[in-house]
Structure formats: structure tokens, C-alpha cells
Amino acid sequence: MRVLIIQNCELEDAGLYQTFMRERGIDHDVVHAYRPDVTFAPVAAYDAFFVGGTPVSACAVDDHEFLRLELEYLRQILDAGKPFFGICCGGQLLARLLGAGVRKNPVMEIGCYDVELTKAGTNDPLLRGFPLRFPVFQWHGDTFDVPPDASLLVQGKACHNQLIRKGTAVALHFHLEVTAANAARWAEVYANELESVSKNKNTVVQECRRHEERMGKLCGLLLDNYLALIR
Prior knowledge:
alpha/beta; 27% strand
């Protein structure tokens, strides 16, 4: 299996997903889509695609040339029936391509929050071995609707639609791949957003550190379940 990771900003890499791919011997490449000289390999060159986040809103694709170009590439991925795993903004782009609305969430989510499996989620092989409720790291202000014929597998309180699946296309808002070290860097670069949730850098980092081990294990489990699903 050969995987392409599409990184949409310098700060937000694939984190533990990429670490676990290395450990599991999964052949993978990274393309930095935000760079002006980027070129995308033919879709046929890869078996699956992981699409990461960016502070740019998925509602503002038309204002950013790199996202306009990327969206066309992502459409080719779906047209080819290739597995697509979208994280945060990557998930919102997927939802948009699947015909769902993407909009501002009533509130931002920054830090760790509990989410829970829906009834569909408890029976879905993607989430085999997951507890009914579990902590995740969040940093987003937008949300997506559930596309036609897709299933909502994980839900939250402040942002209801947390993980959706349609075949091998998966979109999620939360970050299981983020460590406390990642959270610290995000809290420095995106410090101006912390006031919106009445938190500071220390609060966000401590929240992440408290749940880091458990989130890491769930990240590995989610990756393994997804790879088993698409093989």
C-alpha cells in the first residue's frame, strides 16, 4: 500500500498518523500543498490519501489559490474511488465535495473535549475497539453537515458532527494525532484564538498532556481499523 499525505500548512503535519505509518511499514509520501511550487502526482500513483488541516477556513477556498488547485485534485481522488481520510479542514473539504454544507460552528473548540460514538458508530468497523466515549484534541471554528448517504459515527456537544464516513471516505474534526508538544506549538502560533474559548497556552497543553497517552493509542487503533477497511 502506498499513501499520500497532503499537508496544508507548515505547522500542522500528520503527527502520530505518520509515526504509526512508519512503524507499520506503510509506504508514504508527503506533499506540501501550501507551497507555491507544489505539483500533485497522478492519483493512480497512490492507494489512499490523508488530507490534513490548515487555519484557512474551508469556507474560504476560493480566496486561496492553493486550496482551489487542491480541491480539484481531491475531486479526482473521489472520482477515482480512492480512499480519502480528511482531518479537520481536510474533512471539511471532503464533506464539501460529497455535497454537504460547511459553515461556522456556533463556538470554537480548542483543547480536549469528550466525544461519543453514535449508534451507527458502535457498529462500524472503523471504530472497532473504541469506547463509547473518549477524549480528543480539537482546534477548529467551522463544522460540516452530514453528506447524503454518509453516516455520522462520532458526535460531540459543542460541535455535533465529529466523524462521518461514506464508503472509504472519512472526515473527522478532531485530532488524535496531536501530542502535547504539538499543542504547545499551535498555542504559540494561534495564540490570538485562545481568548475565544477563555483558555491560555498552559491550559491547552495541560489538557492535551492529561489525555495524550490515551489519544495516542486510539490514533493507532483508528489508523489500523481504517487500513483494514480499505485493503
